[in-house]
Every structure is written in structure tokens, then in C-alpha cells.
Design a protein that fits this description.
With 200 residues, this protein is an alpha/beta fold. The protein is built from four helices and five strands, in the order H-H-E-H-E-H-E-E-E. It starts with a helix and ends in a 7-residue tail after the last strand.
Length: 200
């Protein structure tokens, strides 16, 4: 029994010694293997293209001056993967904020406020424990002007003896006062590879 345990330990150590060493990856210069699934490079490509298109379109140029208030609505994941949609949305929001043309509200959202402190701090009104001069007054939250919604689609196809996985990242910017779409965009990410590659 001891001999068997020693043998298993030696094999395990030998396999661990053969594993590739852990290393840092420069996201801006990653020449590593491409998977059939969506990865951080795909989210970066989609957000860069979407924001560049939105800014170039003039849809977020406020004719009254100042910045529009944007709320993120629902972005549907219609892929076979479990995606963190917030990863894509956050990249878009950061770039829009840096543009100086849009601010994002965290006080409202499809599933409730993104930051619950917007409402919780207002429950401090009339509390004897808090200096009321520092408590947020009524009517100070800003309603959104624009809403960003969208969908991420996946379509799998056969191309010769390979599989092709197509991702479509569709976004719509809506003027909430009129309900009209001011801007729409679709970014395509298309990957082709072996059937052995997993796309979900």
C-alpha cells in the first residue's frame, strides 16, 4: 500500500513539474491561443467599436449642452455560454464616461438600482441620529435621458470540415422622452476552428 502511495505521489509531482508555468498576459498584446468562446478580447473589440460608432454618430451630443444621463437597460444573453454581461457593459460605460458626453445613473435599473445606497441614504431624513444638513434632499436624483439595451446572439454553422461560431453583439440607444432609437450598432465576432473546440 505504501509503495502504491509513493508511486502515485511521484507521478503527481512529475506531472506538476511538466505543467506550463503561470505567467502574466498583456491584454493589449496577447498572441495566445484563441478559443471558440467569447473572451476578454472579444468584449474589448465589441465595446471599442460600439463606443466609437456611438460617439461618431452624434447621438450623445446634447444640443442643450452638458451631458446626457444614461441608464443601462436589459442586455439579453442569447448564447450557449454563461456570460457576465456586466463585463461588456462596464467597458462601454467607462469609455462613455471618459468621453465627457455621458454620465451613467446607478439610481435606477431594470432589476432595481445598481447602487442601493441611492435610496438607503434617503431613509436618513428625519432621523435624529444624523445631521440633517448632510442628508440628501428630495428631488435631487437625476432621471435618465437615454437607455442602452441590447442582445448578444450566437449562431453555430458548418464550414467545410470545421465549425464556425458567429457572435452578434447588438446595442440600441433609446431617447426616453420620445421612445425613439437614436443609435444602433452590431459588432460581429466570427471564429472558425476544429469540432473539438467547445463553443459553450
Amino acid at each position: 500500500m505504501k509503495t502504491l502511495l509513493c508511486l502515485v505521489s511521484v507521478v503527481a509531482l512529475g506531472l506538476a513539474g511538466c505543467a506550463a508555468p503561470t505567467r502574466y498576459v498583456d491584454p493589449d498584446n496577447d498572441q495566445g491561443a484563441v478559443s471558440m468562446q467569447l473572451d476578454y478580447r472579444d468584449f474589448a473589440k465589441a465595446s471599442d467599436e460600439a463606443v466609437a460608432s456611438m460617439l461618431a454618430s452624434g447621438a450623445v451630443d446634447n444640443p442643450a449642452g452638458g451631458r446626457y444621463v444614461l441608464v443601462v437597460s436589459r442586455i439579453v444573453n442569447d448564447t450557449m455560454q454563461r456570460l457576465d454581461i456586466d463585463q461588456l457593459v462596464k467597458k462601454i460605460r467607462v469609455q462613455l464616461l471618459r468621453s465627457g458626453r455621458v454620465v451613467t445613473t446607478t439610481a435606477v435599473g431594470i432589476d432595481g438600482p445598481e447602487d442601493e445606497m441611492n435610496q438607503l441614504t434617503r431613509t436618513l431624513r428625519d432621523s435624529e441620529e444624523f445631521d440633517q444638513r448632510g442628508v440628501e434632499k428630495k428631488g435631487t436624483l437625476q432621471a435618465p435621458d437615454l437607455s442602452l439595451s441590447g442582445k448578444i446572439l450566437q449562431r453555430n454553422r458548418r464550414v467545410a470540415d470545421e465549425q464556425q461560431v458567429e457572435y452578434y453583439m447588438q446595442l440600441t440607444l433609446t431617447d426616453l422622452s420620445s421612445g425613439l432609437a437614436l443609435w444602433e450598432n452590431e459588432t460581429q465576432v466570427i471564429k472558425r476552428g476544429s469540432d473539438a473546440s467547445v463553443a459553450w
